[in-house]
Design a protein that fits this description.
124 residues, alpha+beta, OB fold (Dihydrolipoamide Acetyltransferase, E2P), six-stranded antiparallel beta sheet, 9 strands, Single_hybrid_motif, GCV_H_sub, lipoyl
Length: 124
């Protein structure tokens, strides 16, 4: 399974794509595969502030419901409302189906996240 090299990852199977002082976040293809068919994604409201480690979403699938921790501190500037109508987008392309975009309070937090190679090595 290929993990995009331009993203950062967490051991909790969250990917982060940084663009300046903002970042889009979603769950990895590995997480999507483990969850099975995604049925619902609980999207946070815009302007919600999170600290690294807080639960930022819940993903309900055919197998389970998983709380997902956010790896960065920031404020939600957008939620992917396409997931309201088509949560299966996460199964189809986990890296296009971002869940939230946040304005980073501390961009340096991203430096502590995993590279694609390190994430993949941790799965073995």
């Amino acid at each position: 399974m290929a993990y995009p090299a331009d993203l950062k990852y967490t051991k909790e199977h969250v990917w982060v794509k940084v663009d300046g002082n903002k970042a889009k976040l979603g769950i990895t293809s590995y997480a999507a595969e483990q969850l099975g068919d995604v049925l619902f994604v609980d999207l946070p409201e815009e302007d919600t502030e999170f600290s690294a480690g807080d639960k930022f979403t819940e993903v309900e699938s055919s197998k389970t419901t998983s709380e997902v921790p956010i790896p960065v501190t920031g404020k939600v500037v957008a939620a992917n409302e396409d997931l309201d109508d088509s949560p299966e987008g996460i199964n189809e392309d986990a890296y296009a189906a971002w869940i939230v975009e946040v304005e980073l309070s501390n961009p340096a937090e991203v430096d502590g996240l995993l590279s694609a190679a390190d994430y993949e090595a941790g799965l073995e």
